[in-house]
């Protein structure tokens, strides 16, 4: 049975909020000076409502926010299925859902963009499982999966280039707490464990540029009586890849999918 993606995996955890006693002018200024189009209204961690840019239109600039905010708001739970959150967003016509725990405390916020990303870029258990099956079939070795933190400077990439525009997208996600786990193969070579980065090159490079030293990862551990040389190791060696610093950033072209889409227009 496939694991479902949960809201907590894709929500933004650091949420900008406003107080019920803030004025319309104060909140309008914050919206104008940021990329937000609205804010949850909170009392401590308790969610009291939501105010959007539309709610501020025609309102007296000195009016307190509690007089214009929407009080009866739709919220999500951290354990909620992302697909269910998508249905709520679609049917309600809103762009963002505050995420609250069982006590009604604000724990994050999930947007329609987060929902889309969860479906097209998720490092799913199925993807990890398929890679494990491939390794077992090709190399006739036992493998197991574990979750752990990995140091970026210990990773050996298996992809020689990334795209600048997608790199910027991953940087934005990291800055907003949206990082997905990497997928790494751990292969013992003598006394040293070789960590091959197989999925998440853009995320790893973006994190490195932000000064992040470690990331969460699905680690596929190869268990063999004798050292096994994997095909990905040969690929990395042939491409001269020994660290993520060796990965080139292509800034003169967009991702191939974008180019293809552009040609179709």
From TrEMBL:
Keyword Oxidoreductase on this protein?
yes
Residues covered by the CBS domain: 11-68, 69-126
Q: What are the UniProt keywords, alphabetically?
A: CBS domain, Oxidoreductase
Q: What class of enzyme is it?
A: oxidoreductase
Q: Which domain of life is it from?
A: Archaea
Q: Does the keyword Oxidoreductase apply?
A: yes
According to the UniProt entry, what is the EC number of this protein? 1.1.1.205
UniProt-listed Pfam families: CBS (PF00571)
> A single GO molecular function, which one?
IMP dehydrogenase activity
> Which named protein is this?
Inosine-5'-monophosphate dehydrogenase
Classification of source organism? Archaea, Methanobacteriati, Methanobacteriota, Stenosarchaea group, Halobacteria
């Amino acid at each position: 049975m496939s694991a479902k993606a949960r809201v907590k995996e894709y929500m933004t955890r650091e949420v900008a909020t406003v107080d019920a006693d803030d004025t319309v002018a104060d909140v309008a200024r914050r919206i104008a000076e940021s990329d937000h189009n609205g804010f949850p209204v909170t009392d401590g961690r308790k969610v009291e409502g939501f105010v959007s840019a539309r709610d501020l239109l025609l309102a007296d600039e000195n009016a307190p926010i509690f007089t214009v905010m929407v009080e009866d708001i739709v919220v999500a739970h951290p354990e909620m299925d992302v697909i269910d959150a998508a249905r709520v967003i679609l049917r309600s016509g809103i762009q963002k859902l505050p995420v609250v725990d069982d006590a009604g405390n604000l724990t994050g916020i999930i947007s329609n963009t987060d929902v889309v990303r969860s479906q097209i870029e998720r490092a799913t258990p199925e993807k990890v499982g398929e890679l494990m099956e491939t390794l077992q079939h090709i190399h006739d070795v036992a493998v197991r999966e574990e979750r752990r933190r990995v140091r970026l400077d210990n990773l050996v990439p298996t992809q020689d280039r990334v795209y600048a525009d997608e790199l910027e997208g991953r940087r934005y996600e990291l800055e907003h707490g949206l990082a997905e786990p990497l997928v790494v193969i751990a292969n013992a070579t003598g006394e040293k464990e070789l960590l091959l980065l197989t999925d998440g090159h853009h995320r790893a490079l973006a994190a490195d540029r932000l000064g992040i030293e470690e990331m969460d990862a699905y680690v596929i551990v190869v268990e063999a009586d004798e050292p096994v040389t994997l095909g990905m190791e040969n690929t990395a060696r042939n491409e001269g890849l020994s660290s993520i610093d060796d990965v080139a950033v292509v800034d003169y072209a967009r991702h191939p999918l974008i180019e293809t889409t552009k040609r179709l227009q």
